[in-house]
Amino acid sequence: MATLDQLKRPSSLKRPYRRVGRGQSSTRGKQSGRGGKGQTARAGHKIRPALRDLIKKIPKRRGYGKNRGRTHVPYPETIALSLARIDALFDNGAEITRKVLVEKGILSRRMKNDIKIVGTGSITKKVSLVGIAVSGSTKAAIEKAGGSIRSVPTEQAK
After folding, report:
1. Does any domain span residue 127?
2. CA 89, 142, 127: angle at the middle one, nearest 5?
3. Is the pTM of this model over 0.70?
């Protein structure tokens, strides 16, 4: 039969809670982890944070420079597509819209940027651009190939 001196503590149990502030020992005695004497050693001590005073002295710069919101984008960048890429990716007689460019994987669905087709080369296919900006030389090349450029999709025009 087992006696009390043969019992072992289960390893899963943690050590019992140690009471602080008892005795003069180096661990949890005397000052009990409160540091030195003075205001910080007392219960309920409140010290005004010095960093806050420094921050409050800095003037507000509303909406300008480093203090403006991180989501602020002053001017959305325009995405440039080359005329040669349009010629390579689309068939003769194709109607090119923003939705078609997303389906082809040229643009991301989340992109809110404007699109502009640029390039000085020539195009061999007759394509129709709807709601996409073009440069002057690109417009001349598309119209020379028999294509057309509309500023508004046909569904919205009605």
Report:
1. yes
2. 45
3. no
Residues present in the chain in total: 158
> 116: which residues sit within 8 A by CB, 6+ positions away?
78, 79, 80, 81, 132, 133, 134, 135
The half-sphere exposure of 62 on its side-chain side, counting CA atoms within 13 A, is 0
DSSP class of residue 93?
T
C-alpha to C-alpha distance for 144 and 138, rounded to whole angstroms: 10
Rounded CA-CA distance 123/130 in Å is: 17
52-87, pLDDT tens digit by residue?
888 888 877 666 666 666 665 666 788 888 898 888
* pLDDT tens digits for range 2-57: 899 888 877 766 666 677 788 776 677 888 888 888 888 888 888 888 898 888 88
CATH assignment of the domain containing 127: 3.100.10.10
What is the residue range of 111's domain?
79-157
Burial class (CB within 10 angstroms; exposed 0-12, middle 13-18, buried 19+) of 33: exposed
Amino acid at 49: P
